[in-house]
Amino acid sequence: MKRCAAQRPFALDVNTGPLGKTPEAEMRFFIEAAESVSDLPLLIDTSNPRAMRAGLEAAKNRVIINGFSLEPRKLELILPLAREFDADIVGFLLYPDSRVPKNEAERFEIALELMDRAEGAGVAGERVIIDPVVPPLAWTDGIAQARAVLNVIRTLPEVLGFAVRTIGGISNLGTGAGDKAKRRLLEQSYVAMLASAGLSFALMDILDPDLVPSARVSGILAREEIFSWAMVPGP
After folding, report:
1. Helix pair 180-197, 142-160: axis angle to 10 deg
2. For the chain, how far is it from start to end, CA to CA, in angstroms?
3. What is the reported pTM?
């Protein structure tokens, strides 16, 4: 955790994985451990509503809820926490049964409904960070889906009518890959494409010595107006 915080990412992802019989206590432990070494915002990553509430109550740093979708349980128990705790929240472009949409049109339909549900719960659209769901390339339509994600990121601001923020899990792309070197090469290329498409935040291993410089340089090329060699991370 200290090594991650030292790299100064935009936030630390607190993903507890499966929790035991005392999810509230376990989440409080993780939050307190993270905040003992960092003042960075925390991305609280759990589908357990009880653990999520406990984490939000325990956190002193700014928090981002990760996250909700059209799944009824998450609409009922996770989404309202964003208003209650005045927090940003990640919204996944998934169907109510957690299926991944097949194309751009389906993702746009889900995004519009997701925003309607958020606003209905008293959460402003500007507080929602859309996750279009980066697919594993190993899926039958994985490469088509990966291209669809890029187009969705480019077009979402026009569809929604404001500069919506987006986030993507980079490691999803190489799920199931046996060759680590090939997986890392694909991730480096795709993170550059995501930056070019306008992705706001990349959820990734901040200790990866190849992926992190690629992501940071891609962000410079995609967003900065004035260039300085001092911006480029060293080897």
Report:
1. 20
2. 22
3. 0.93
List alpha helices for the chain, DSSP H.
2-6, 23-35, 49-58, 72-77, 79-84, 104-120, 142-160, 180-197, 211-223
Under 8 Å between Cβ of 97 and 74: no
d(CA 135, CA 131): 11
pLDDT in tens, 96-110: 999 999 999 999 999
Lowest mean pLDDT among 34-38, 74-78, 129-133: 34-38
Q: pLDDT of 109-120, one tens digit each?
A: 999 999 999 999
- Which domains are assigned to the chain? 60-231 (3.20.20.20)
